[in-house]
Amino acid sequence: MPEEIILKPVGIVKSGYTDTNRAPEARAKAIIKVYPEYEKALLRISEHSHIWILSWFHLRERGALTTTPGRLNHNLPEFGVFGLRAPVRPNPIGLSLVKLDRVEG
């Protein structure tokens, strides 16, 4: 097993949210800008209504192994981060199914 796994970003997500605690959990619009060297990988992507996005939560804490599952209800007990959808985890990788509105370029 390798001690290090290297991921290469293929683009960047642009949204109006800069504070991770204020970002909505769903239905927010964003723009994904794919780097020019990967544009060919978008061939015919507009034929799909939805796409899967893998993301890296670069602004989130990575050291926590437990957290509470609700942003609004802090009276809930702590859980291990592997049992929650929380972005606080050792490797902050996100997986989202998103509606594809349009493709430009």
Short description:
Helix content is 0%, strand content 25%.
Structural write-up:
This protein is an all-beta fold and 105 residues long. The chain has one domain: Elongation Factor Tu (Ef-tu), domain 3 (Beta Barrel), CATH 2.40.30.70. Helices cover 0% and strands 25% of the residues. The chain contains no helices and six strands. The protein has strands spanning 11-14, 31-34, 50-56, 66-67, 79-80, 93-99. The strands form three sheets. It has a two-stranded antiparallel ribbon with strand order 1-2.
Sketch the topology as an H/E string, one letter per element.
EEEEEE
Fold-level CATH name: Elongation Factor Tu (Ef-tu), domain 3
The CATH architecture comes to Beta Barrel
Structural class: mainly beta
CA-based gyration radius: 16 Å
Q: Could you tell me how far the N terminus lies from the C terminus, measured between alpha carbons in angstroms?
A: 40 Å
Give the amount of beta strand, in percent. 15-25%
Into which percent range does the helicity of residues fall? under 10%
Report the sheet with the most strands, covering strand number, pairing sense and barrel closure.
Answer: 2 strands, antiparallel
